[in-house]
Amino acid sequence: VNAFLELYTFFLISSSDNYLKKMAEKMDRGSDAMKAHFSDVEDMSIRQTKRGWCQELLGCEARTEFKWFKGEEQFASSLEEASCCCRLCCSPIHPFKMEVKELNTEAEILTIDRPFRCPIGGCKCCCYQSAEFLSGGQLLGSIKETCFFCIPMFKIYDDKEQPMYILHQPTCCCGTCVNCCAEGNPCSKKGCCKVSFRVYPIAQEGKTSGDAEYQGMILKRPKSAMTEIFTEAEVFDVNFPDTSSNDQKAILAGTSVFINANFFEGE
Prior knowledge:
single chain; alpha+beta; 6 helices; 31% strand; globular
């Protein structure tokens, strides 16, 4: 009996040590800059910079640039890395990399790697839109378009390719239409030019339509009416799920760049 108890105790300690080791490895992923900026933060704003009036007028595909804010304090910036030929000929589905760098120090916070894929479309069986998110040379996770019929839908995965979240616009009519009034009347100041993408836990798969409860949101809102009408500059407000970790927050923040590339760059 004593031998059995000793063996059982050894097994529990070993299992606990392995579990703690795996958790420590998971928590240690990402650069120090990423951990510093995504810890203890509930929301974030990613704001696209306006291109020059001449570029906007002539329709030139300049490199996309964002400024990253916590509240009204800018802490980082990012600039798209893609060839001129790709931007001109393949926009908005061209491949690109974007490195989010800390202001002043240039330390890497997050890297977004989006390969060339077919445009988002219903009933596809392959060549889904996707992107990977890295930090400190380590893979944090990815986002991938899923097969859909009416409303574009995405799954967000961790570094082990295990699904964590489902992402799509709010729906109505039993999930067959986008609910344009979800963030307010689109003809009023409250809801004008706002487009939201809601974040649902993977355990809720198949139950995310209509007024289903969601954990987070990526909201595209206009800087101003004139900016919205005459430029492509977008603002994305990201509200993180309460239980999300640093790397999950980084993935969701990077997802706003992915959403911009797929839905708003061709406007």
